[in-house]
C-alpha cells in the first residue's frame, strides 16, 4: 500500500506549480485528491492527467477563489461528497507580486496579498476542520515560505502574509489538539522552487540567468524542485508524521541555516 493510501486530500492552488506537484506525489502514494483553484480549467486539466495516470477515481477539480467564504463552503462539500470524506487539507494557493519597499506598495496591493495568502488559510481551517474531525487522523498543511521567517526589504506584504500563515498554522494545531481532535497542522517554508511563480524574475533576467542568480543565494547552490515539496507533503499528510503538529518545516537548501 502507498504511504498515504486511503487519505482524501483537498488542495488549493492545485492547477499548477506546487499544488499540482503535491497532488501528483500524493496520488502516487495512494491518496485521492480534490484540486481547487481560481483557474478551474487548469485544475481540471491536472485532475484529468492524474486520473489517466492513477485511475479515474483519483482526482476531482473545483472552482474556488480562496478569499470567498461561500465558495469555500461549496467546494469542501463537493469534495467531501466526491471523495467520501476529507482527511487532509493543503492550503497552498498564494500570490507574490513585485511590491517594492513599504513606501512603494499600495494599501490595495498589501490587502490583496493578505487576503489571498491569509484569509485562505483562515477560511480553509474554519470550514475544513469539521470534515477532518469526521475522518481522523487528519492533517492540515499550510504553505508559508522562507519569507514568513526571514524578511526581504522589497516584500513587505508577502513577508507579513507568510508570517501570518506560520502563526495561524500553530494556532490551528493547538486548537485541534486542545479540542481532543487527532488533527495536526503544520507549515511548510520553501525557498525558491521551480514553478511559474518565478516567471516575473525569469522575465527580468532570462530563465537560465534568473535561476542561477536565485540558486547562488542558496547554500546548496540551486533552486528547489516541485517534487521536493511534493515529498514533504506526503510525509506531513501521512501517519509517518503522527506526532508532529504546530511545527514549521523548512525546505530551503540551507538558506535559513
Ligand atoms: P503558482 O503561481 O505556480 O501557483 C499558484 C496557484 O494558486 C495557481 O494555480 C493560481 O491559479 C492559484 N491561485 C492564485 N490565487 C488564487 C485564489 N484567489 N484562489 C484560488 N487559487 C488561487 O505558485 P507556486 O509556486 O505553485 O506557489 C504555491 C504556494 O507556494 C504559494 O502559496 C506560494 O506563496 C508558496 N511558495 C512558493 C515558492 C516558490 O518559489 N515557488 C516559495 C515559497 C513559497
From TrEMBL:
PANTHER family: DEHYDROGENASES, SHORT CHAIN, OXIDOREDUCTASE UCPA
EC class (word): oxidoreductase
PROSITE patterns for the chain: ADH_SHORT
EC nos: 1.1.1.175
Keywords: Oxidoreductase
Gene (UniProt): cpnA_3
Name of this chain's protein: D-xylose 1-dehydrogenase
GO molecular function: D-xylose 1-dehydrogenase (NAD+) activity
UniProt cross-references to InterPro entries, sorted A to Z: NAD(P)-bd_dom_sf, Sc_DH/Rdtase_CS, SDR_fam
Amino acid at each position: 500500500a502507498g504511504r498515504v493510501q486511503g487519505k482524501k486530500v483537498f488542495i488549493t492552488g492545485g492547477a499548477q506549480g506546487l499544488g499540482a506537484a503535491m497532488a501528483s506525489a500524493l496520488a502516487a502514494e495512494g491518496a485521492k485528491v480534490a484540486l481547487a483553484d481560481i483557474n478551474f480549467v487548469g485544475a481540471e486539466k491536472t485532475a484529468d492527467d492524474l486520473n489517466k495516470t492513477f485511475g479515474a477515481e483519483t482526482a476531482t477539480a473545483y472552482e474556488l477563489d480562496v478569499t470567498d467564504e461561500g465558495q469555500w463552503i461549496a467546494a469542501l462539500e463537493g469534495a467531501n461528497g466526491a471523495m467520501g470524506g476529507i482527511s487532509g487539507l493543503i492550503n497552498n494557493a498564494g500570490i507574490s507580486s513585485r511590491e517594492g519597499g513599504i513606501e512603494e506598495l499600495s494599501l490595495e496591493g498589501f490587502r490583496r496579498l493578505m487576503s489571498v495568502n491569509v484569509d485562505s488559510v483562515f477560511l480553509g481551517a474554519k470550514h475544513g476542520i469539521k470534515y477532518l474531525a469526521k475522518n481522523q487522523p487528519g492533517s492540515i498543511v499550510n504553505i508559508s515560505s522562507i519569507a514568513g521567517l526571514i524578511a526581504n526589504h522589497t516584500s513587505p506584504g508577502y513577508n507579513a502574509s507568510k508570517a501570518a500563515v506560520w502563526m495561524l498554522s500553530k494556532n490551528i494545531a493547538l486548537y485541534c489538539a486542545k479540542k481532543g481532535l487527532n488533527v495536526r497542522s503544520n507549515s511548510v517554508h520553501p525557498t525558491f522552487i521551480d514553478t511559474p511563480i518565478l516567471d516575473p524574475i525569469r522575465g527580468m533576467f532570462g530563465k537560465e540567468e534568473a535561476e542561477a542568480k536565485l540558486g547562488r543565494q542558496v547554500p546548496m547552490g540551486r533552486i528547489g524542485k516541485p517534487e521536493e515539496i511534493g515529498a514533504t507533503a506526503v510525509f506531513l499528510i501521512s501517519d509517518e508524521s503522527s506526532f508532529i503538529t504546530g511545527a514549521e518545516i523548512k525546505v530551503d537548501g540551507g538558506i535559513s541555516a
